[in-house]
Design goal:
Elements lengths: L1 E5 L6 H10 L4 E4 L14 H13 L4 E5 L11 H21 L3 E4 L9 H18 L6 E5 L12 H11 L5 E6 H6 L7 H14 L5 E6 L1 E2 L10 E2 L7 H9 L8 E4 L9 H12 L11 H10 L5
Parallel strand pairs: 1-2, 1-10, 2-3, 3-4, 4-5, 5-6, 6-7, 7-10
Antiparallel strand pairs: 8-9
Helix pairs in contact: 1-2, 3-4, 4-5, 9-10
Length: 305
């Protein structure tokens, strides 16, 4: 697995790539604008080019843009749905300009219209966006939900229903958040539990549709439906669950992005979580050990902010 983290862009788009490499990342996720904004300032072509150049210079293996928090592509309210679809289309174009591999987004909530209606609306939203950007290269990745309230996408069957309805496997896929999986009731802490998870994933959705992970431990218990992230090994999932993921050959070329809590040391906390994940790698099991990266990240951990 290509291990990375979500890095802020306050110091510039290109700087986010340099910051990612300094703490030992092989992959990078960013917001292209404030997640609390419907639309952001226009991305200057020079800034986008500088970001792409920095990603290449730092030899990052994968990049993703995470969509903001306001859009709801399942909304039954016409005004909200129209605004959400416009924001989503804008985000696709920003991600295309940045050369990102994936645009990760929350599928949305049906707000009382019902699961089937909500899933149909999401699929319609995605088909419309793809039609607007027919030559797009960024893969649109639905993020699984924890299952709170009327949010959609907490089951593999719901995610599969959307992908099937869109009918464009080269343009869409799934990003799996480990905290959300656990909160939704998937227990992958044991060998048997991890095997069951993969069986259910393959049967309902297909492993080939998983193109990214969010690597987060969980503060809340199994099946809580609460989206509460914790640092790797410090929560209810523990190290055992992540050991399965980082050593599974099927995910060897799939990025895994940290979204774990930070403290007053800034990204040094990410460096520690990356080191923890890499300490779980078993040579020859599938994920390639990067011991030199671990040592560099550890040396920087006390100084990176």
């Amino acid at each position: 697995m290509y291990l990375g983290a979500h890095i802020g862009i306050a110091e510039g788009l290109a700087e986010s790539a340099h910051q990612a490499r300094r703490i030992g990342c092989d992959a990078l996720q960013i917001f292209s604008k404030s997640p609390q904004m419907w639309s952001g300032p226009v991305l200057p072509p020079a800034s986008a080019e500088a970001f792409r150049d920095a990603v290449r210079a730092e030899h990052l293996r994968a990049t993703a843009v995470h969509h903001g928090y306001l859009a709801n592509l399942a909304s039954p309210k016409p005004d909200m749905l129209a605004r959400s679809r416009q924001a989503f289309l804008d985000e696709i174009r920003r991600a295309e300009l940045l050369g990102a591999d994936g645009l990760i987004f929350h599928p949305g909530a049906h707000l009382g219209s019902g699961t089937d209606a909500g899933l149909r609306t999401i699929a319609e939203s995605l088909r419309g966006a793809i039609a607007e950007v027919p030559e797009g290269r960024v893969r649109l990745l639905l993020e699984n939900a924890a299952g709170q309230g009327t949010t959609l996408g907490s089951s593999f069957e719901e995610l599969a229903a959307v992908l099937d309805a869109v009918g464009a496997p080269e343009r869409v896929g799934v990003a799996l958040d480990t905290c959300h999986l656990f909160a939704a009731g998937f227990d992958f802490r044991t060998d048997e539990g991890y095997g069951t998870l993969l069986d259910r994933l393959e049967q309902a959705l297909g492993l080939r549709h998983v193109h990214a992970f969010h690597l987060n431990d969980a503060k809340a218990p199994l099946g809580s439906h609460l989206d509460r992230h914790e640092n790797i090994g410090g929560g209810e999932i523990g190290r055992a669950g992540f050991r399965h993921l980082v050593n599974d050959r099927r995910w060897a070329s799939v990025p895994g992005y940290l979204e774990t809590p930070l403290d007053d040391r800034g990204y040094a906390r990410y460096a520690e979580d990356l080191a923890t994940l890499r300490s779980l790698e078993v040579p020859g099991a599938g994920a390639r050990p990067r011991r030199s990266t671990v040592r560099r990240a550890a040396r920087r951990a006390s100084t990176v902010k």
